[in-house]
Structures are given as C-alpha cells and as structure tokens.
Amino acid sequence: MKELNNFRFKTWHFILLLAIMFVSTNILGNINIKRTPAYLEETCFVEIDDSTFGEAISSDISFVLFYKEDSDLCTRMEYNVNRLAELIQGEKVNFYKLDIEKYPGRYSKYDMSGTPSIIIYKRGKEIERLMGIVPVSNLEIIYNRVVK
Asked: Residue limits of the Thioredoxin domain (predicted)?
C-alpha cells in the first residue's frame, strides 16, 4: 500500500495516454466509415451546378451537401442524409448536392473549412450549417428544429 502512495504521474504517462487515445480514435473512425456502403443505389439528392443553385435553394426547405466525389467522409454523410430522408418521407424538403471540385467558386463563396458540409436553406436564406459527419439522430433533431 505504501508503494501506491508514492506513485506520481510522469510526463511520459500522459504522452503515452494521448498516443493510445489518438490511435484508437483513428482506428474506430475508419471502421465506422468502412461500414458505409461504397455506392448508394438510390439517393434523395439531386445534383446541381452554379446555374441551378439559386433556383434550387429558393424552395421552402433545402439541404445542400457540398462534397468531393472521391471522399469516404462525404459518402458517409450522404448515406446519413439519405437515411434521414427515409424517416421524413412525404415532407416538403429538397436535397441537393454540389461537387466542390467542379464548382470551387461556390465553395469559397460560403467560406467553408472542409467537406462534407451541409447548408440548410429556407426560401433562399441560410438557416443552418453543418460541418463533418453528423449522425442520423442528430440530423433528425436539426430537421425538427428547422421545420418549426
């Protein structure tokens, strides 16, 4: 028992703990991303471009996903939003996506720091911004808040 009272955390203990946490979160994150289907057979998203952007967001509620074609993270987010669309079937919500590699001007105009990013518009006005992968349960909460 006396040995436990004399134990002191050293700097290397914290460094080792941080390294273990970093490695484990990266491994778990990659496992979660790999569970996403590589190809979505049916999607709720309509591909838009610079010329159709203004018209697309002018409807009541629009979710616009800014994505990169070859990004696993963007595929995961698209999958999550598709699952949200299944939950809210019949609602007046539009889902659009814009490839930022084809239309980089739109991406820089909205001052985004990364992909995937979703901007939610209500009658053309931005009302919510989501960055990164958002779980379906959180998307549902955000949707319910936006609709009210």
From this structure: 46-139
